[in-house]
Amino acid sequence: MKKFNIAIDGPAAAGKSTIAKLVAAELGMIYVDTGAMYRAITLAHLLQPKVDFETLVQKIDLKIVNENGQKIFLNGEDVSERIRDNDITLNVSHVASQKVVREKLVGIQQEMTIAKGIVMDGRDIGTYVIPDAELKIYMIASVTERAERRLLDNQQRGIEANFGDLMKDIERRDYIDMTREISPLVKAQDAIEIDTTGMTIEEVKNEIIQLANKIIA
Fold first, then answer.
1. Helix, strand or coil, per DSSP, at residue 58
2. pLDDT tens digit string along 62-83?
3. Within 13 Å of residue 196, how many CA atoms lie on the same side as its CB?
4. What pairing do the DSSP bridges indicate for beta strands 30-33 and 135-140?
5. Contact 143, 169 (CB under 8 A)
6. φ, ψ of residue 73 in degrees (nearest 5)
7. What is the rounded distance in angstroms from the CA atom of residue 29 to the CA atom of residue 153?
8. Which positions ≥6 away from 196 have C-beta within 8 Å?
9. Beta carbons within 10 angstroms of residue 36's beta carbon
10. Is 98 helix (H, G, I), strand (E, B) or coil?
11. Are 45 and 91 in contact (CB under 8 A)?
12. Helix, coil or strand: residue 113
């Protein structure tokens, strides 16, 4: 099969990670969740709030392991579940806006795409990390639907959450992500936009698979 890269971008809770995992599995590609990488740095920052970001990114040992799903190891510890907690969600946009953090992680991400066969999701994948990706998707959804998805996810994980607070947090994260100085969230000119509002996971996945099949052919 022809090897190529797929970049999936979009705002918080647009369903990027869920869809990217399914697309990668169906196409036999490697899934990379860049958001998890920024969440790991956020965890390191919360554990050492007095350490400046430049020192922080130099000191930490971050490993991404793709075996039976992606696992994130921070300083030798599996933090894949911990980084999904609310305190990480509330702080990740701020941490991700730091220049030294983005430079560190983008370097790691770009190395992972050299051999092709990657499905990578995030905020700046198609515009900055792999601008030469053969297929670029920009996923969006209404704030209301994204808040509903985040609420359901929290409930399934046993995390208390208020719908109104989730909407405000998503709007806040959108503003930070779209207005940050370093590689803000924008749609790449050659990206295909998919509005997932009202769509099922299967419908979104199938639409992207159809687009990928055109490249394979």
1. helix
2. 998 987 778 999 999 999 999 9
3. 30
4. unpaired
5. no
6. -115, 125
7. 25
8. 14, 15, 19, 139, 140, 141, 145, 204
9. 21
10. coil
11. yes
12. helix
Terminal C-alpha separation, the chain = 9
Phi, psi of 116 (to 5 degrees): 70, 180
**Cα-only R_g, the chain:** 17
Task: Collect all residues with Cβ–Cβ distance below 8 Å to 190 and sequence separation of at least 6.
Answer: 126, 136
Residue corresponding to tokens 């936009």: 193
Q: pLDDT at position 160, please?
A: 87
Distances (CA, A) of 4 to 111, 117, 214: 14, 5, 12
What the block records as the tokens of 194 is 């998919």
Sheet containing strand 62-66, strands side by side = 62-66, 70-74, 77-78
Bridge partners of 66, per DSSP, are 70
Question: Residue 146 carries which side chain, given as an amino acid letter?
Answer: R
Tokens linked to 30: 């490697």
Gap between the Cα atoms of 163 and 147, Å rounded? 7
Q: Which residue type, as a one-letter code, is found at position 145?
A: E
Question: Coil, strand, or helix at residue 197?
Answer: coil
Burial (CB < 10 A; 0-12, 13-18, 19+), residue 32, is buried
| Residue pointed to by tokens 């050299």 | 114
Strands 70-74 and 62-66: antiparallel
Split at pLDDT 50, 70, 90, the class of 92 is: very high
pLDDT score, position 157: 86
Distance CA 212, CA 208 (A): 6
Tell me if 107 sits within 8 A of 123, measured CB to CB.
no
The CA-based angle 109-113-114, given to 5 degrees, is: 120
